Each structure stands twice: as C-alpha cells, then as structure tokens.
Amino acid sequence: MSVSSLKPQGKKYKIAWLPGDGIGIEVLEAAKIVLDKLQLNAEYIHGDIGWEFWCKEGEAFPMRTIDLLGSVDAAMFGAITSKPVKAAEAELVPELKGKGMVYRSPIVRMRQLFDLYTCLRPCKAYPGNPLNFKTEIDLVVFRENTEGLYAGVEFNPVPQELKDTLLKISKPFTAFKDVPLDQYALTCKINTKKGSERIVRAAFEYAKKYGRKKVTVIHKANVVRATEGLFLEIAKEVAKDYPGIKCDDANVDAICMWLLKNPMNYEVLVATNLFGDIISDLCAQMVGGLGFGCSGNIGTKLAVFEPTHGSAPKYAGQYKVNPIATILAAKMMLTWLGETEKADKVERAVAAIIKEGKIRTYDMGGTNTTLEMAEAIAKKL
Ligand code: NAI
Ligand code: MG
Description:
two-stranded antiparallel ribbon, alpha/beta, Rossmann fold, binds 1,4-dihydronicotinamide adenine dinucleotide, 17% strand, 3 domains, 12 strands, ten-stranded mixed sheet, binds magnesium ion, 13 helices
C-alpha cells in the first residue's frame, strides 16, 4: 500500500462527501469545520448513500455515487443505518412492499468495487483522555478489507447441488448430512495469496515508513487451517523482505487477552477481514471507544475515510456525539493526499484539546456539543 496518493501537490483536490444518515451528518459537518479552517484547496462533492436511497430507489449505493467515487481523489464517509433485510422481510416494510428488494451493505460493496483492500485503523491513547484504558497505547491495525468471511459467498438455504458436492469432497464434517437444506446456512471464507500478500506488505511498508519495529500477524491457523494457514504462510514469506522489522504472530483468541494485558507491547497488527474487524474494535475501546476510532479504506486509486462507529440512531439530530473519530479520519485523509503538514496540525490540535480537558462531549463526561468540540479543535490549528 502506498501511504499517500499519487496526486501532484498544489492541485485542487476533488473529495467525495458522503454524510449518510443519523449522526453521520453531524460528524461530517464537524470535520468540515476543521478542513475549512485549514483552507485545504479542495472541492467537496456530495454523494447520496444509505437506507433512504434503498427505500426510494431500491439502491443504497446509487450508480451516480459509484461514478462520483470513480472521479475523486479521496472520500469522507459519515455513517449509514444498515438494516439487513431479506426480500421476504422487505415485504413487511411499507415503503418496500411489492418491490422484491434485497438490501446489500453499501460499505462492503464500496470496498469490493473499488478494491479498497486495506482497512487501516490507528488506535492511539492521547494523554488526558479520561477514557484511555492505559496511557501508552499507540498501535495500528491493518485489516484485510475485501475477502475472507466478508467475500459475500453465502447460502441460506443451501442449494442441493452444493450440499451433494460438499458431502462428496468434505470428509471431516458431515453433521449436516441429514439436516434439511433450509435448516442450515453456509458462509464461505475465501482468502487468496494475492489478498494476503498485499495486506501484509501494506503493514510492513507502514512499519518501515513510520519506524515501527514489530508487525504482529493475527490468525487462527491451528484450526482454520486452509485460509488462516495460507495467510500465516504468506505473511512469513513477506516478512523476509523486511529484515529490520520483527515479525511475530499470535492466535486471534490469545491476542485479545494479550492486548488487554499489555497493549503497549504491540505496534502494527495485521489480520484477515473478520478478525481485523473485531480486533480493531477492541483496540478502539482501549483508547476511548467509538468517539475516537477512525478508519481508512485504502486501495491503489481511491481511499475512503470514516469513523468506525455507525449512525447511532438514538443520538441522531442531537449534536452531542464526539466528532474526534471523524476529525482523525479527516487527518488520515490529509496524510493520504500527501498533506502531511496539515495532517500533523490536526493531530496536534486534537491532542491539545484532549489534554486541556475543557471541552468534552458526553462520552468523555462533558456537556459540549459536536460542533463546539470541532470549533475548539479548529481554533487550535
Ligand atoms: P453505533 O456505532 O451507531 O452506536 C453504538 C453506540 O456507540 C451509540 O449508541 C453511542 O452510545 C456510541 N457512539 C457511537 N458513535 C459515537 C460518537 N461519535 N460519540 C460518542 N458515542 C458514540 O452502533 P449501532 O448502534 O450498533 O448501530 C447503529 C446503526 O449504524 C445500525 O444500523 C448499524 O448497522 C449501523 N452501522 C453503520 C456503520 C457504518 O456506517 N460504517 C458501522 C457500524 C454500524
Ligand atoms: Mg466494525
């Protein structure tokens, strides 16, 4: 992974602006206050995405938004409300009745369509944050973003021909032999050599660029032998190209324990899709929770930055949630664009506001609003 885009400096950036719904709208408004104060030379182009468009048009990720993403340098995404309904359930929703629609997650689709194979999630404990689990946590999670258990090859019910084939070729597990087809479901975990190689290389390249000394490969190769075994094997191969960086590995269950015990022993973590998703939430909680978790979905041509949290419907419209996750996501976007000076300024401003402790949103024990927090950060730039 290149940690920055290939965009020539000084040119006006085109940035897709996808607030989504719920608190996605509020936190993106907050991030815009910070970007405007930085006077980033950019054009922000609104894109439609989410539940509302599925109801209206049968498509949560409309073609015009896909086209927009194909034409920009980077994108900021807020959050959307996802309602994983099947066609039969959609019949129960008044707006959808009779339309025979199936909801597909726009984010998963976006990652696959644009091959945003790296999900980069930094987790840093900024001094003064009352929500830090321990003080010296500064680690980065690299999660494979396009394959694994999220590849989308799933069956419920399972087709008869698939069951027949599985029974023919899969000896160890035949417990489903006598189970009716509609009484079980099947999700395929698919990991490729290419997908494993490029995410592990991205983690090592990051370690090299930022002077990190260790990359930890997270897996479950002892049990999920085919796919996780492949991932570990490839990781060990890739590690040979980086003799200056230590490479160790750990089972996903064990690492959850070790991360809680000694989070400061870890620097860069890399994992397949689902394990990376889970580990990054655990790490985000150790540095303050969802109000601080930011994320970059990075491919070779496009990168989409977002807070890791969702649309938090119970807070929607109240302007009380913490915008720091999204402001740090904007900081990641600036780094990706090569605007490192501006990115550093944002991080210093966020760190200063956290340290001072005068402005705090509800999750930090304060009463300030989303926009007050953004304005305080902008003032520090
Ligand atoms: P959520 O992340 O939206 O919120 C869970 C809880 O975390 C909130 O009720 C709130 O207490 C806290 N929280 C979230 N963001 C916060 C912030 N910025 N500051 C302070 N506290 C914050 O997760 P939930 O409730 O499970 O999902 C709500 C909807 O969001 C669902 O429809 C879900 O599918 C969707 N979702 C969307 C994502 C996305 O757009 N990338 C990611 C995760 C969930
Ligand atoms: Mg998640």
